[in-house]
Design a protein that fits this description.
The chain is of the alpha+beta class. The chain has one domain: Electron Transport, Fmn-binding Protein, Chain A (Pnp Oxidase, Chain A, Roll), CATH 2.30.110. 23% of the residues lie in helices and 32% in strands. It contains 4 helices and 8 strands; from the N terminus they run βαββββαββαβα. It has helices at residues 10-18, 65-72, 106-110, 149-169, and strands at 3-5, 21-26, 36-41, 46-50, 53-59, 75-81, 89-99, 119-133. Strands 1, 2, 3, 4, 5, 6, 7 and 8 form an 8-stranded antiparallel sheet that branches. Strand 6 and strand 7 (89-99) form a beta hairpin. It is globular and about 50 Å long.
Amino acid sequence: MAQVLDGINAELGTWLMAQPMFFVATAPLSADQHVNCSPKGLVGTFTVIDEHHIAYLDLTGSGIETIAHLQENGRIVVMFMAIDGKPRIVRLHGQGHVVLPHDPDFASLVTRFDHHEGTRSVIVVDVERVSDSCGYAVPKLTLVQERKILDLDAAKRGPEGLAQFRAEYNETSIDGIPGLAMTKD
């Protein structure tokens, strides 16, 4: 049975931290632009800060939709689903903001996560609604292994190559909404 919770309690926080992947969905303000849903993974890239705040490590990729949408309007939902054990889906709705390496809070936030060469930012979500539902239609899956390709690619590119990649692929969203372009020093 679906239920809305008061916040992220210790049991739920432990469950969230144990999940090998989650999904992040954001949308621009304009109805004729694209909604985005991104899968996230890698152990050590998600944390529960407290009952109403979560954060995840944003790694360099070929898109910048989440950052662009959050900078435009802040709306975000993060969804987790059980891949084994008891079926469960948890959605965390809230307002997200982007913390970049030059921001004052970045140094303290990034210590909450495992180190990744391709770290682009930390996404922090002020959680306004926590809902827990059954997940009865979600198949039971088996995690074979994590993919380390993103980390290997970031290490191969190095800091200068990552900066060049971000300049080429992360300045605007697919709809032309500013991504990293509006956040440069």
